[in-house]
Design a protein that fits this description.
alpha/beta, seven-stranded mixed sheet, two-stranded antiparallel sheet, 8 helices, 9 strands, 34% helix, globular, disordered N terminus
């Protein structure tokens, strides 16, 4: 069972900021997690920012886990800036955050939303002996969209497409993503998919897969590839019936948070 959210847990310390797009860092409180220092690294998605997963991180931080939600390069600035960044930049930022958590915690679980889920899977494939568990929410590792095949040409003709942000069923919620989708940057993401898919068998850590019933951003191509491709024997799928793509801010967010907390506690012995 995860540690209880008692009054003392709510006193968990984090970086103080009024900017929801800023990185999130919460110090571990091992007295709430069975004496173990357990870290959780969460990654936001493409064109998003920590704002899209901040409540997820804050929930886990309140339970005593040390939480890091880095701001990936080119995000929370402008879509034009993002168009100058590539998959290697985003992965390097996440890997640095992982190394920092590993240095200070007994175990680290990684997770992410959309592209953040793909980055978490990449990290789990590269560090199979260091990742204690993987949590992915609507991860993207493939797509059935036909226009993807045109990106190598389109990215030189058109700088951006309409936004993919704010695919949220719950009214009045804004994930604070970009108003445009930069094509050179997203092509870099898509070019990273084949190598990631090929390396999925290297993932052996326990995995929880959260999937929205309706997702207008990530289609149904990714789920069977991930679940059939990994070598993990401890795999849980959690259906999110009342949410769209950004489930961490949607109607099923409490379910994501509760199941994540139980998963982290179980796979780390906290």
């Amino acid at each position: 069972m995860p540690p209880s959210t008692d009054e003392s847990a709510s006193e968990s310390t984090s970086e103080s900021t009024d900017d929801p797009t800023a990185p999130l860092a919460i110090a571990a409180r091992p007295e709430l997690t069975g004496g173990r220092r357990v870290g959780v690294l969460l990654s936001h998605g493409f064109t998003g920012s920590p704002a899209s997963i901040r409540p997820w991180g804050e929930h886990l931080g309140a339970l005593g886990y040390g939480v890091a939600v880095p701001l990936l390069p080119g995000h929370a600035t402008t879509w034009q800036d993002l168009n100058t960044r590539r998959w290697a930049d985003w992965y390097a930022a996440l890997a640095r955050a992982f190394d920092a958590l590993r240095a200070e915690h007994d175990a680290v679980v990684v997770g992410g939303l959309s592209m953040g889920g793909a980055l978490a899977l990449r990290l789990a494939a590269d560090r199979p002996d260091e990742v204690a568990g993987v949590m992915v929410v609507n991860p993207a590792v493939a797509s059935r969209r036909l226009d993807i095949k045109l990106l190598p040409v389109l990215k030189h003709l058109v700088p951006s497409f309409p936004a993919i942000a704010n695919d949220i069923k719950r009214p009045g919620v804004d994930e604070l993503g970009y108003s445009r989708t930069p094509l050179k940057a997203i092509h870099s993401l898509i070019r990273a998919w084949p190598a990631l898919r090929a390396d999925l068998p290297r993932i052996t850590a326990p995995l929880v897969y959260f999937r929205s019933a309706v997702d207008h951003v990530v289609d149904d191509a990714s789920e069977p590839i991930v679940l059939d491709g990994i070598s993990s024997t401890d795999v849980t799928r959690v259906a999110l019936p009342a949410s769209y793509h950004v489930a961490t801010l949607d109607n099923d967010a409490p379910l994501v948070f509760e199941e994540s907390a139980a998963f982290v506690a179980r796979v780390t012995g906290a």
